[in-house]
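Researcher: We're teaching a course module on how sequence relates to structure. For the next exercise, students receive a sequence and then see the predicted structure as tokens, so they can try to spot secondary structure elements on their own. Here is the exercise chain.
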Amino acid sequence: MNKNRRSIFGWGAAALGGALFASGIAHSVLAQTSKASTADGVAAFETIRVVLQHPRCQNCHPPGDAPLQFDEGRPHGQNVKRGSDGQGAVGLRCGTCHFTKNPPASYGAHVPPGAPNWHLPPPKTKMVFIHLSSGELCRAIKNQQANGGKDLPALLEHVSSDKLVLWGWDPGVGRKPVSVSHDEFVSKFKTWIDAGAPCPK
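Model: And here is the predicted structure for the students to work with:
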């Protein structure tokens, strides 16, 4: 019994020692990973700004209560309005014309595009991107009272995987996709966060 006990305790000690060793290596690696500098973060945000202020993004982040259309950002036809929840006004909801995916290319250009949960931000958290300087835009997207309560990890998750965001890179026939690749955008977003999410002046 004592021998078995020693064997069990010996194995436990070895496992614990191995875990501590592995933890030490991980800590060492993390310690050697330098954070991005403030200058790196500010430079990365310029790429973020280019994406957020591209027509595919900013058309759904206007200061008014109507979404915008096309590269020139003209007011949406049919007198479409934001509505109390961002899903469109009563009688003309976003989902009336915008389905959960783009129509087939054979339908031609300028057919209403689609993605899951097509909507604008609700009126209390409009998340306006249009006509803001880099600094103003940066401070706006970090403001949890204005962005729907998203902290930095939640913002990263949103821009990385939300299907409505991803639509900007696959907007359907007749529309220019976001000019920066999605991979580069996410990479710059990570750099910005790693630098402490600094804002340009």
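Model: If you want an answer key for the exercise: The first helix runs from residue 2 to 32. Residues 1-33 form one domain.
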